[in-house]
Specification:
The structure holds 2 protein chains of 2 kinds.
Chain A lengths: L13 H18 L5 H13 L4 H12 L1 H9 L1 H7 L14 E5 L4 E6 L8 H4 L9 H9 L1 H7 L9 E6 L5 E5 L11 H5 L19
Parallel strand pairs in A: 1-4, 2-3
Helix pairs in contact in A: 3-4, 4-5, 7-8
Chain B lengths: L4 H7 L11 E2 L2 E2 L4 H15 L5 H18 L9 H15 L5 H13 L2 H4 L7 E2 L2 E2 L5
The chains are: A alpha/beta, B mainly alpha.
């Protein structure tokens, strides 16, 4: 695998060696004062706490419990972001010009990007693999009901499906329907039910997070 | 409002499906502790200016391409973070932060003090000039 250790037989205990390589590297760098364990922890905690669908989930959960906030979120997504205590970067590069569309009993929204793969990272975290797949993008426009079915979303024929094409100008995302049986849940508990897929319109929110 | 280096580093890799790290539910996906460690170390080093992020990315892409050219596409031994760790070692050596030899001897020390490995029934690894047979 690597030319640095020509003497090693990699298949013998690859996992143990990988782990030792990573630790050896880290301990040398710390020993020599190149980096500190704290620096690495800070980097990793950014990904644990800020780079994920946390912000989108917070916004949706608030909208579910607060009709006034929901109105604002639908009208001016960026203004709604400013009302919640969201971390730096929400209105930065990839979060600019976000718009959210609401799923109802009659309308189901799905977001795609048929040209590139514009994705509202600050709210939804890192884009899933399928979002960049050209086949997905082409098919969801042509046969949305079939594609949604493949994602496990069965919609009755009376539900209208709207496809929103994200671009560098407007990055769309979806306000999913609040599932039944969640009346007693707190805003924090509701936020935990949300997934990036639900906020892209290719999944429904389930009452219990699985 | 500024963009965090961490954000820049991660988003710069999302352009191609080959280069982008594994992810799940909007989060980075780490299957093993050491993956998370080498991910964090690479970003921390570049954040502190020890090498350009783009240099690291080039090394990573080079490793991925060379793996792909020598394996079938559906080869199950594909391991994104092995390519990442190779790129990290290469970047660290190229930037003159560490020497290849000192990484190897430190690795040897780490492997030597791993009792559970040396108790394996078969020799787990042979290091040039220092073959370690099972002692169990």
């Amino acid at each position: 695998m690597t030319s640095l250790y020509p003497g090693f037989r990699y298949d013998a205990d690859k996992e143990a060696i990988s782990e030792a390589r990573a630790k050896a590297l880290e301990s040398l760098l710390i020993e020599k004062g190149v980096i500190t364990g704290k620096t690495v922890d800070q980097v990793l905690s950014y990904f644990d706490t800020e780079m994920g669908p946390f912000n989108g989930a917070k916004l949706v959960a608030r909208a579910w419990v607060d009709p006034e906030f929901k109105k604002l979120l639908l009208e001016d997504c960026n203004a709604a972001c400013e009302m919640l205590d969201l971390p730096n970067g929400m209105s930065g590069a990839e979060g600019e010009h976000m718009r959210i569309v609401e799923n109802t009993a009659d309308v189901h929204n799905v977001v795609v990007c048929t040209l590139c793969s514009c994705y509202p990272w600050p709210t939804l975290g890192l884009p899933p693999y399928w979002f960049k797949d050209p086949t997905f993008r082409a098919r969801v426009v042509r046969e949305p009901r079939v594609v949604l079915g493949e994602f496990g979303v069965q919609l009755s024929d009376s539900v209208n499906i709207r496809i929103w094409d994200s671009s560098a100008q407007i990055r769309w995302w979806v306000l999913p329907m609040r599932p039944e049986g969640t009346e007693s849940l707190s805003e924090e508990e509701l936020a935990k039910l949300l997934t990036p897929e639900a906020m892209m319109g290719v999944a429904l929110v389930k009452a219990k997070s699985e | 409002m500024f963009t965090r280096f961490e954000h820049f580093a991660a988003t710069s890799m999302m352009g191609s499906s080959e280069e982008a790290p594994p992810r799940e539910d909007g989060h980075l996906r780490f299957d093993r502790d050491w993956e998370k460690l080498v991910f964090g170390v690479a970003i921390a080093l570049s954040k502190e200016g020890h090498f350009e992020w783009d240099e690291f990315r080039q090394a990573l892409m080079h490793n991925i391409k060379s793996w792909e050219s020598s394996h079938e596409l559906d080869d199950t031994s594909w391991d994104y973070y092995q390519c990442w760790m190779d790129a990290l070692e290469q970047a660290v050596v190229r930037a003159g932060i560490l020497e290849a030899g000192e990484i190897e001897s430190c690795l040897r020390r780490h492997l030597d003090c791993k009792g559970e490995i040396t108790r394996n029934e078969s020799p787990f690894v042979s290091i040039t000039g220092n073959v370690q047979p099972s002692t169990a």
